[in-house]
Design goal:
By secondary structure, the chain is mostly beta strands. It has one helix and eleven strands. It has one domain: Rieske Iron-sulfur Protein, CATH 2.102.10.10. The structure holds FE2/S2 (inorganic) cluster.
């Protein structure tokens, strides 16, 4: 692939790329890859199988990796096993009245829907999509 053409006068002409110059096979491969996303991991046969502690949180494993799952305002949530501040086990914390996960070590709070550190210390909690389907509960962990 050339990125420019020498005109002999020392001036480089920018190439005129357009979408029509891309191979349709390349485009199709990209689409197929995104449709076959294999980042979903089954963590339980059903929500009832997950033994949530009284704080509404539990530890499950997805492909050998521990994660925190919980029920917040009737919705399933999933996030990293450890707090991004200093590694507190988030399943030992609790969910506050606003639906934030509160770390048991220093009480930093995180919004489990987007990972924002709502108590303002500047950390970010990794969160995962979680879905209950007819055959089980699945968590999406890209790159695992
Ligand atoms: S380890 Fe979680 S707030 Fe410090």
């Amino acid at each position: 692939m050339r990125f420019g053409k020498c005109t002999g006068s020392g001036i480089r002409i920018k190439p005129s790329f357009s979408i029509s110059r891309l191979s349709p096979i390349t485009i199709n491969r990209y689409v197929i890859k995104s449709l076959n996303d294999s980042s979903w991991y089954k963590i339980a046969e059903s929500v009832a199988e997950i033994h949530f502690s009284p704080n509404g949180l539990a530890i499950r494993t997805a492909a050998g990796k521990a994660i925190t799952v919980g029920i917040c305002n009737g919705q399933l949530i999933a996030c990293a096993h450890k707090c991004p501040h200093a590694g507190g086990i988030l399943a030992d914390g609790y969910i506050d009245s606003l639906g934030n996960i509160v770390c048991p070590l220093h009480r930093y709070k995180f919004d489990p829907r987007n990972g924002r550190n709502v108590s303002g210390e500047g950390f970010f909690l990794k969160t995962f999509a979680i879905e209950e389907k007819a055959d089980g509960v699945y968590v999406n962990i890209p790159g695992l």
